[in-house]
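During the second half of the funding period, the structural biology subgroup turned its attention to how the target accommodates small molecules. The most pressing case was iron/sulfur cluster, which had performed well in the primary screen but for which no bound structure existed. We therefore specified the complex as follows and requested a full 3D prediction, including the ligand pose.
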Amino acid sequence: MKRLFSGIQPTGELHIGNYLGAIKNWVELADKFDAIFCIVDYHAISVEYEIHEFSSRTQNLAAGLLACGLVEKKCTLFVQSHVQEHTELAWVLNSITPMGDLSRMTQFKDKSRQNPDNINAGLFSYPVLQAADILIYKAEVVPVGEDQVQHIELSREIARKFNARYGETFPEPKEYLTRGARILGLDGQAKMSKSLNNHIGVFEDEKSLREKLRTAFTDPARLRRSDPGNPDVCNIFTLHKFFTEEGVVKQIDGDCRKAAIGCVECKKILADRMVSHLTPLRERYEDLTSNQEKVRDVLSDGFVRCSGLAKTTMNEVRERLGLFRP
Ligand code: SF4
C-alpha cells in the first residue's frame, strides 16, 4: 500500500466544511492507503491562538476525527509536536529552500494580510514544516484541497533538491485532490469558517442546526416562492449533494428550476438528512469526550509508530548530510 499523509490544525470546533472537505475523504482513503493523519499543532502556533484552550482543543479534535469514522479504520493518528523529528527535518529542509519560493506562496500572502501585526518567520517557513511532515514518513500521496496544491508542489521541489544534493532519499509526494474541498458557509459567499461565523458544527445539536439552515442564503435571485431558482448557485443544493439520496437531489434540481418547490421545504429536507447523518457522529463524539482514555490510547499508539518511522528517516538524513556521529 502506498503511504498517505494529511494534517489538520486544532483551530476549533469541527464544522461541516472540514468534514466534507477533508475528514469524510480521510475515512474513505484510510481503506486504500497506509494512512497517517496528524493534528498539526506546531502549524497552529504561527498565528495568534488561545493558549489555555490549546491542549483541550487538540484532544477534542482527536475525539472528533475518531467520531467521524476514523475509529473504525486501520490508520494512524497522532499529534505533530509529539514527534520531534518533524521540526528537526524542517530545519534541514529550510537550508535548501529558496526564500523566493516561500515568498511566492499564496497562503503566506493571505495570512500576512490577515495578521499584519504578526508576520513571523514561522508563517513564512510554514510550507517547509509541511514538507517535513510529509517527507519524514516518505509519504507519496497527500490529500488536499485546491488551495494547498501550491504547497505540495513546493514539497515535491524540496524533495527533488534534497535528493539531487545529498542522494536519493525521499519520494516526490503527489497531491490527491479531494472532492468538496471548498464548502461555502451559510452566507453562501465565503468558505465555511468558524472565524466568519458562517458555519454549522459537525456535532451541533439538532435545534441549532435546523435554525442555522433556516436562515441560510439560497439563490439570491429567487426573491419569491413563485420565482424559478437556480440550484447551481445555491449552497443549500451543494449540501444536498453530500447528504441527500441521488434521486431526491435530481427531483429538487428539476423542481427548483420550475418553482415547484420552495426554499423552506427544500431546507427542511436537507435538515432531516443532515440530522440523521450527523446524530450518530455526535453521540460517538460525546462518548469519546467523556471517556478520553480511548482517545489517548489511539494517540499514544500513533506516536509510537510515527516516532519509529521518523527516527529511521532522520538517521538516514543525518548520514546523508555528513554530520559527525560519535
Ligand atoms: S429550492 Fe432549494 S435549491 Fe432551489 S434555491 Fe431554494 S434552497 Fe436552493
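Two results from this model are relevant to the next phase. The chain has two domains: 3-183+292-321, 206-286. The mean pLDDT is 95.
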